[in-house]
């Protein structure tokens, strides 16, 4: 097995494996020890690859996982097990070494969209508008249906991305108002904890789900209840990520923006914007958010400030996947090319060409880049990219993007790698998510009453900073008397207030040009003191020439 064949594509390609050909490869996962790669395809199979080989050795296919009756939608690994989800509405657990199916989880009524695992649990989402919690250990079950521990119902559209936040014993339990529980409450929580630990569930475990109903929800795994509903998106929530402390949630989708949320309070704290088309996928590394968009660009945001610090250009179609590795941002694109960018400078360093269809998913393991495509081919590339002269560029080149804080953002960006437990979108679900915004009915029954108000506060607060900055600029300009006041004969006739700025009688008080959004177009001009130049009245709208208007203004000034 292996079916390896090689071509020379700029001396970067190490291997090309066509075992899934001609069926699209939709998903890919790497084991925790980075020795095994698993690919899932529309041929209804998954394949296990041994990739921890010595230099020069080919990637070896160690087995084929057969049993699903429809295409594979999602894959993950836990320990020595492979977990696959399929459009046949089932989840299967496989032995990674023998490739035998150990258990079939049945219960979803539509295709499974995501799966993720802890040491004892499996969490899945489905287009049937639910998420489910399953027991990973199934050897002692009397009834296969007992494998399902919880069903999370509440969304009114298909559920796609899911994130898991493990409970923390160091934090005190809090009630709905955010106050610490009393001793009796702690004792009650302890009893619930002892009961739930039999299933491997911590009382403070939190599940977050995103759906095509334009919302995300946080759930208590122990109580099987909704904690918060995150409202604000104008389209399906197709991508999610959480920070390492589990305090901040990032959501995105076809509405062209990434939203940051306070998980505990449920309010939107930042809006990361700038994309001109749908967000397809994203990866959070430290305080840097890398975004793949359908507008043919990839983006880097510094989450602490919400500003875009870098745009990665050069793609000719939708950017489907992004992966950061050792200072390099790799992108997989629908134009059949994988690209490597210097993550800090944004410079394109390398193009990996060879695929005959869209690149759906990429993984980087050690010094090798693995790309899977709709052409059914798994390609292995050299991921060692020399930054070369860009080291000097890092300290000299200004950041490009949408924010004016570029240099400040660059200097304050962190360098510690973050980890997260989340299920990211696969290629098969991208079109379904975008289409579902037209097909799904959106319902908000039972939503928290204060969600809308709390979300808008985070956005309005940021917008109110702009007039304050412009007011400071106006005050500074009033203190600068460097310009001489022209005579009335030299002053052109003034028009009614326009977007270029309000009329000014005294040029010494004229503020610098700025956005009209901070000015009131109905505010009349201030009268000038008698000892200074005569005031000029506003001309009425008409077709008179400029010279007659100027003469009339001069005569009126003399009469006064």
Q: Describe it for me?
A:
By secondary structure, the chain is an alpha+beta fold. It is built from 7 helices and 34 strands. The strands form 8 sheets. The protein has a 5-stranded antiparallel beta sheet with strand order 1-2-33-32-31, with no helix packed on it. A 5-stranded antiparallel beta sheet has the order 18-17-16-15-34. A 4-stranded antiparallel beta sheet has the order 3-4-5-6, with no helix packed on it. The longest helix is centred in the middle third of the chain and has 14 residues, at 183-196.
Assign an overall shape.
globular
Low-confidence stretches: 1-9, 175-183, 390-422, 437-530, 532-547
Query: What's the total count of β strands?
Result: 34
Q: Could you tell me the radius of gyration in angstroms?
A: 30 Å
Number of helices: 7
Biggest sheet overview: 5 strands, antiparallel
Could you give the order of strands across the largest sheet? 1-2-33-32-31
Q: Report the oligomer.
A: single chain
Mean pLDDT: 76
Strand content: 25-35%
Structural class: alpha+beta
Helix share bin: 10-25%
Taking the alpha carbons of the first and last residues, their distance comes to: 99 Å
Question: Layout of helices and strands, plus pairs?
Answer:
Elements: E1 4-5, E2 13-17, E3 25-30, E4 36-41, E5 46-50, E6 60-65, E7 72-78, E8 81-86, E9 91-95, E10 101-105, E11 112-117, E12 121-126, E13 130-135, E14 148-153, E15 159-165, H1 183-196, E16 206-211, E17 215-220, E18 225-231, E19 239-242, E20 248-252, E21 258-262, E22 268-272, E23 279-285, E24 288-293, E25 298-302, E26 307-312, E27 319-325, E28 328-333, E29 337-342, E30 348-353, E31 359-365, E32 368-373, E33 378-382, H2 390-396, H3 406-412, E34 422-423, H4 427-439, H5 451-463, H6 465-478, H7 546-559
Antiparallel strand pairs: 1-2, 2-33, 3-4, 4-5, 5-6, 7-8, 8-9, 9-10, 11-12, 12-13, 13-14, 15-16, 15-34, 16-17, 17-18, 19-20, 20-21, 21-22, 23-24, 24-25, 25-26, 27-28, 28-29, 29-30, 31-32, 32-33
């Amino acid at each position: 097995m292996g079916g390896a064949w090689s071509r020379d594509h700029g001396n970067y390609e190490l291997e090309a494996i066509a075992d899934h050909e001609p069926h699209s490869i939709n998903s890919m996962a790497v084991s925790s020890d980075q020795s095994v790669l698993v690919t899932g395809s529309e041929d209804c199979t998954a394949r296990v690859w041994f990739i921890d080989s010595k230099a020069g050795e080919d990637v070896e296919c160690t087995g084929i996982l057969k049993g699903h009756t429809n295409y594979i939608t999602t894959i993950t690994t836990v320990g020595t097990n492979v977990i696959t989800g399929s459009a046949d509405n089932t989840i299967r657990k496989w032995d990674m070494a023998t490739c035998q199916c150990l258990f079939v989880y049945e219960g979803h009524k539509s295709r499974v969209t995501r799966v993720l695992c802890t040491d004892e649990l499996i969490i899945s989402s489905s287009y049937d508008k639910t998420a489910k919690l399953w027991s990973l250990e199934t050897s002692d079950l009397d009834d296969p249906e007992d494998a399902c521990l919880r069903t999370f119902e509440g969304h009114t559209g298909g559920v796609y991305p899911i994130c898991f936040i493990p409970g923390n014993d160091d934090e005190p339990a809090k009630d709905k108002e955010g106050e610490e529980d009393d001793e009796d409450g702690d004792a009650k929580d302890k009893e619930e904890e002892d009961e739930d630990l039999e299933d491997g569930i911590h009382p403070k475990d939190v599940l977050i789900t995103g759906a095509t109903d334009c919302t995300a929800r946080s759930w208590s795994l122990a109580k099987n209840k909704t904690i918060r509903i995150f409202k604000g998106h104008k389209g399906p929530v197709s991508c999610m990520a959480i920070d390492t402390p589990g305090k901040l949630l990032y959501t995105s989708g076809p509405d062209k923006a990434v939203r940051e949320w306070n998980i505990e309070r449920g309010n939107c704290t930042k809006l990361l914007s700038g994309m001109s088309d749908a967000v397809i996928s994203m990866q959070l590394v430290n305080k840097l958010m890398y975004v793949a968009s359908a507008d043919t660009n990839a983006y880097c945001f510094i989450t602490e400030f919400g500003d875009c610090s870098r745009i990665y250009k050069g793609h000719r179609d939708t950017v489907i996947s992004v992966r950061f590795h050792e200072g390099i941002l790799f992108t997989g694109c629908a134009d059949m090319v994988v690209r490597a960018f210097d993550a800090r400078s944004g410079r394109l360093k390398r193009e990996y060409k060879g695929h005959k269809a869209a690149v759906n998913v990429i993984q980087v393991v050690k010094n090798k880049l693995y790309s899977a495509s709709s052409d059914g081919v798994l390609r292995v590339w050299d991921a060692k990219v020399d930054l070369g002269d860009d080291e000097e560029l890092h300290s000299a080149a200004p950041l490009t993007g949408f924010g004016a804080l570029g240099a400040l953002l660059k200097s304050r960006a962190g360098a510690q790698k973050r980890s997260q437990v989340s299920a990211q979108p696969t290629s098969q679900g991208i079109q379904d998510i975008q289409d579902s915004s037209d097909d799904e009915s959106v319902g908000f029954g039972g939503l928290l009453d204060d969600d809308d108000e709390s979300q808008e506060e985070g956005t309005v607060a940021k917008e109110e900073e702009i007039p304050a900055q412009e007011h400071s600029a106006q005050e500074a300009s009033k203190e600068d008397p460097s310009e001489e006041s022209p005579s009335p004969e030299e002053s052109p006739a003034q028009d009614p207030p326009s977007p270029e700025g309000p009329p000014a009688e005294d040029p010494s008080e004229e503020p610098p040009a700025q956005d009209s959004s901070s000015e009131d177009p109905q505010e009349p001009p201030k009268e000038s003191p008698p000892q200074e130049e005569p005031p000029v009245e506003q001309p009425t709208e008409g077709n008179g020439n400029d010279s007659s208007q100027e003469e009339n203004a001069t005569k009126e000034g003399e009469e006064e």
